[in-house]
Amino acid sequence: MELRHLQYFMTMCQELHFTRASEKLGISQPTLSQQIRALELETDTLLFDRVGKKVVVTEAGKILYRHCVRMFDELGQAQTAIRELKGLRRGEIRIGSSGNHMLINSIISFHQSYPGIQINVAELSTEETRQGLLDNRLDLGVVFLPVEGEQLESIPLYTEKLSLAVPYHHPLAASDEVELAKLKHAPMALLPRKFLVRQMVDIATKSKGFRFDPVVEMTTLDSLLELVNRNIALTILPDTFLSGVDPKRTRIITIVDPTPQRVVGIVYRNDMFISSATKVFIDYLKQTF
Fold this sequence. Notes:
Layout: H1 3-15, H2 18-25, H3 29-43, E1 48-51, E2 54-57, H4 59-85, E3 91-97, H5 104-113, E4 117-123, H6 126-134, E5 140-144, E6 152-167, E7 177-179, E8 189-190, H7 196-207, E9 216-217, H8 221-229, E10 235-238, H9 239-242, E11 250-256, E12 261-269, H10 276-288
Parallel strand pairs: 3-4, 3-5, 7-11, 8-9
Antiparallel strand pairs: 1-2, 5-12, 6-10, 6-11, 6-12
């Protein structure tokens, strides 16, 4: 089997559509069909089947796909290890983060020391980061802990607290703290429930016998803060994010009884090769926090 044929096969498994897969690979649809057929002849088994208008992966195809994923992971690790031996100062670190605000200082410091290393940060939910690590699409995550998985290792960094953000002219703006139960009927703008910050809020309100019914749900912290500044709703967000807001527009109030909080940490695969760049970046994170 040629690696090229296996790459075609994996892309077809991911797309389950010959036209989309061929466009993604940059080849013609007949060429892709021919290469898949050649692979089926070589393995002496059907790898894809048609059910109506849909293309589905056969059981044999699923077995081959699982082995291909592991094989390409190993090849990627080998290439990284060889580059490390050559002392290559260029590379890439792929990071999943529960909020880009968590990483900005560390990224600036790291880039000043290692300008040749490219850092790609995706703002994801904790579950999306976990899956990205398991699928080898990410090198590490900075997320709320714990994260489940035998293949995952974690390093605690700090405890993140959630606070209330209100417009500067709001009746609560002069308060230093507020009991969570007193916010029961306040108009709230919150993250969707797939985000751990939202789950932290829901757990805290459940302990007080209620749950917020937000007037708006949005997936970015900046968007939620803008709703506060426009006097549409209040919001509850991480302190590390709210520390950078303009006090002339927004007031930050500590939530008590209870204070929603959770440990933030680094997560990475314990069964994969870790590049020197990634190791150094982990050290930068530990120094920052």
